[in-house]
Amino acid sequence: MDEITLFKRHLLESLRSPLEDGVVRVARSGGVIEFPCRFSLIAAMNPCPCGFLGDARRECRCNDLQVQNYNGRLSGPLLDRMDLQAPMTRLTSRELLGQPEGEPSSQVRARVVAARCLQAERYGASTVTNASVPRPVLERFVELGSSARALLGHAIEKDSLTGRGLDRVLRVARTLADLEGEVAVGDVHVAQALGLRLEQPQLRAVS
Amino acid sequence: MNPRRITSADAEWPPLLNELGPNRPVNLLHVQGREIRPEGLIAVVGSRRPTVAGLDATAALVTGLVEAGFGIVSGMAAGIDAAAHRAALEAGGYTAAVLGFGLDVVFPRHNARLKQQVATHGTLLTEFDEGTQPLAANFPQRNRIIAGLAIGTLVVEGAFKSGALITARCALEANRSVFAVPGSFRNPMAAGSNELIRRSEALLVTEVAHIFDELAPQLAWSEAPARTLEPVPVKLTSLEESILELLDDAPTTPDRLCNELGRDVGAIALALSRMEVRGLVARKGGGYEITTAGARGRAAWQRSF
Known about the structure:
- The structure holds 2 protein chains of 2 kinds.
- Chain A is mostly helical.
- Chain A has helices at residues 9-13, 16-21, 64-72, 76-80, 93-98, 105-123, 135-140, 146-157, 163-179, 187-195, 200-203; strands at residues 23-28, 31-36.
- Helix content of chain A is 47%, strand content 6%.
- In chain A, strand 1 (23-28) and strand 2 (31-36) form a beta hairpin.
- In chain A, helix 9 packs across helix 10.
- In chain A, 22% of the residues are buried.
- By secondary structure, chain B is of the alpha/beta class.
- Chain B has 11 helices and 11 strands.
- A 9-stranded mixed sheet of chain B has the order 1-2-6-5-4-3-7-8-9, with helices on both faces. A two-stranded antiparallel ribbon of chain B has the order 10-11.
- In chain B, helix 1 (52-67) runs parallel beside helix 2 (80-90), helix 4 (138-149) packs across helix 5 (163-173) and helix 9 (254-261) crosses helix 10.
- The longest helix of chain B is centred in the N-terminal third of the chain and has 16 residues, at 52-67.
- The interface between A and B is medium-sized, with 35 and 35 residues.
């Protein structure tokens, strides 16, 4: 969904339960029908209507109300259900022109396949992944050291991480470890997983 | 104290306002809260969309100003204004908010609690009658009162055309000192405050002492405040040191740090998270900025060479 904040709010909110449960439920007088609905949601948005909020070089021309209305379409609960959130800032000309070519997709694919194999082996079923495994099972394979706990504790205390957010962070951290072929989830993976979530207030009013 | 109206005949009428000459407010102010402090006030104004560095500088300087004995005046707008009032209240100091609308109006809405706190522990004042809505046209008029109440005006991040710059202009016209915190030349929010410094209209300020030294003679105060960026040694790994060296007041993304330092994402993310927990860096708009605590740590270690 490109420009996700241009969709109507109630349409976006209707994504919440399919994202969480992987099914669409339609209730009619004859009964409730469930349709399978496992999908990957990829969405993009601007920081504000003019697109320059937080830019280092150009000044944002939107007023606070415009920013609030624009960002308000994407509710906290919906954003909270997104596993990976990455801010995109302006690239410098050096970064645009001088970047070496990235890794080819085939190499990335090989890593993903390897990580999926690790997960299938760990959970004893090829269809179960870090994203779908029940939390208690996941926790058996995510043992956190005291410094990783401190990082998570800090994020929770300053209100940038909710219960659901914590669940997502643990799953992402486990996956990052799998991608590196690591048996244990380290501080590095937890820190990276935390870095892959936006600060919630950053999307709310800039006060 | 309850809402009241004061005129220039009242003992509470701030004497400094009479020095505004033709710009002096019409002979009536609506006031709520404590009695208006008559002297030793500094106006702290700035962008409604500040950077972390701007908010941080505001908190550090206002805390220092309060400790040095000053009271803080601002306009209760979002951003720097609100941060200035909050820091003054937190430091147990006096703060006055000059509104561009009636006493009974709340604007912006998320400042409702702050407004209440200022009404309890400080003073709200306005020229505008009850029910006057926040019209853009009223704000410049309000700004001259902010400048008029204070013996000096401090600008923290003001864009080229901004209310903060209007307040600075009013202060200059009233022959009051103007101070500005320098910002990055890439930060559009600091273009106006930097310009004030360039034209020698504002004194560059990085320490409370800079303001104190300029104004203390007028006030016959003597006890000098502590330095704001006093180096405070912190234990840093070599990676953390290299990261702090690269951070400034424009958000830097972890990706950029990885490229600059040639380290992998995990190591950078871990170092940033750990420094965030220790308050040395803060997240903002998709990147990380250095905080005052971080800058103090950096100063300590850079001095040790």
